[in-house]
Amino acid sequence: MNLEEYFRRIEFHGPYENPDLATLKLIHRQHIMTIPFENLSIHCGERITMDLEFIFNKIVRSGRGGWCCENNWLFAWVLRELGYNPETLGSRVFSSINNDFNPMDSHLINKVVIDGKAYVADVSFGVSSQIWEPLELVSGKEQPQASGVFRLIEKGEVWVLEKTGRKPEILSPDFSKSSLVDKKQTKTIYCFTLVPRGVDHFLETSHTLQTDPTSLFTNKSICSLQTPVGFRALIGWTYSEVTFKPEEGVDLLDMKDIPDDEVEQILREKFNLKLVNKLVPVNNKACYTL
Predict the structure, then answer these.
(1) CB count, 10 Å around CB of 210?
(2) Contacts 24+ apart (CB under 8 A), 12-20
(3) What is the reported pLDDT for 88?
(4) CA 106, CA 214: separation in Å to the nearest integer?
(5) Engineered SS bond to 121: which of 23, 134, 223, 244, CB 3.0-4.6 Å?
(6) Cβ-Cβ contacts under 8 Å for 202 (sequence gap 6 or more)
(7) CB count, 10 Å around CB of 267?
């Protein structure tokens, strides 16, 4: 494991001697633009682990992506190597079905302090809720990014992340009523406390998410990657290209269903992914939106 291999993977060529905010923003952005948020291992008969060396080999050397417990755990190692002294935190994702946060810390994020200011770094939420650069840990501050305006709200010991986006404009009438399209412009994403967590805190969660038949991740095969103008996503057999149009107040959603025999080609051409084992796409009914 070394930083040079990681930097080649994310196509980062800048200086990194100083653990400052500008460097962190660049590395954060390069990570989300080159490494997909994906749970395809579950649907390829592979085991997802939190062993750091295994994650490094998978994401960096084998050119794969991963979900938050892989991407953000790898990113924590990167931050430590660069001298940022991160703290790993656990967060609970908001469920629109229950109108409440899920009961367990199913999402891993990192906090860093630079020049006395704290920031949340999260390189692995995917789709339109993915932040493109770290968010300053200040309650109520509006922080505009490509996909919309993010806010962190302090509520006692808990912090809540929410985002106001734009109206989705769906190009294909066939998907006008798709459950993947979120018509709400303001949404809650997750909540967290500032209690530092070690890897052991996420082991049971990681196991549950990839084995429980009611888990989102066992019910949907998901792959998403940010692009300079929006993001791409493959959910089951539905491929979407989303283009952010802030000047027009909309996001353009170009969606189509693809046949089984084109799945590998889409993954290769649109996400730069080549799987070793056969993917069995899944898109069962579950709460998940672009």
Answers:
(1) 20
(2) 16/82, 19/82, 19/83, 19/84, 19/114, 20/114, 20/115
(3) 98
(4) 14
(5) 134
(6) 50, 69, 73, 90, 105, 108
(7) 21
Catalytic residue check, 68: yes
User: Of 140, 216, 150, 157, which is closest to residue 192 (Cα–Cα)?
Assistant: 157
Residues 6+ apart with CB under 8 A from 236: 220, 221, 281, 282, 283
For the chain, residues with pLDDT lower than 70 are none
At 228 the pLDDT is 98
The tens digit of pLDDT for each residue in 253-286 reads 999 999 999 999 999 999 999 999 999 999 999 9
Enter the tokens of residue 207: 């196991």
Q: How many whole angstroms separate alpha carbon 103 and alpha carbon 99?
A: 12
* pTM for the predicted model, two decimal places: 0.98
Total residue length of the chain: 290
Is 182 one of the annotated active-site residues of the chain?
no
Q: Of 123, 116, 108, 107, which Cα lies nearest the Cα of 25? A: 123
Report the DSSP beta bridge partners of residue 89: 109
Q: Token pair for residue 59?
A: 């994401």
Q: State the catalytic residue, choosing from 43, 107, 223, 251.
A: 107
Can you tell me the distance from the alpha carbon of 96 to that of 281, in angstroms, rounded to the nearest whole number?
A: 24
Scan for tokens 């899944």, then name that residue. Answer: 282
The type of residue at 278 is: K
Q: For 96-217, where are the E strands, in sequence order? A: 100-101, 107-114, 117-121, 135-136, 143-145, 148-155, 158-164, 167-170, 186-192
Annotated active-site residue in 122, 191, 223, 251? 122
Q: Which of 28, 31, 43, 68 is catalytic?
A: 68
Active site residue 107: yes
The one-letter code for the residue type at 219 is: N
Percentages helix, strand, coil for the chain, rounded to the nearest 5?
30, 30, 40
